[in-house]
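Collaborator request, handled under Task 6.
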Amino acid sequence: MSSQALSPDAARSSQGRRAAATVDARQVANLWWLWLVTGIAWIIAALVVLQFDAASIKTIGVIVGCMFIFAGVQQLTLALIGRGWLWAVVAGFFWIAGVVCIVNPEETFAGLADTLGFLFAIVGIWWTVEAVISQSEGGLWWIGLIAGILMFIIAFWVAGQFFIEKAYTLLVFAGMWALMKGVSDIVRAFAVRSLRTGG
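Structure tokens returned to the collaborator:
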């Protein structure tokens, strides 16, 4: 039975699905520049954050809020292109955190610094879950798993620090997070662009 040829209707249906998938891939590939723009924005945010000191708490609170909102937009985009509802839920949490940061930047900065160990633990959980979910796609999923485990270690270390050290750690973490997101988005932009040009 398995060696029999497909019926003409089944063959046409199969070709139609392949053609639709090719069109969807081309449409996504044509938007490669969005990843490039967001990557550059993340790198600029990283440079701004890493140049501030603890006296610029209000500005840092707003920048961290914007970073959360941008991360939420990216997670929602992943949900809309078929990654699943979990990405949309995470986008919602990022947006809530971003709005709270922008509305009360000083209090938010102090609260973030005070609960930094807990926040790092949540990030570690998400990175680990994302890596396990992405395992079936192959590639470099294990980097996310290692990053999640390292984030757990950092979470326990930060939990034992004084407030001033936590505040500086928050600044460094926000800057490094933005820098890593920027670099990964730029790399993703050129990977998506190569799909459009056929390699």
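The cover message to the collaborator said: "Residues 8-55+100-197 form one domain. The chain has a mean pLDDT of 76. Please let us know whether this matches your experimental observations."
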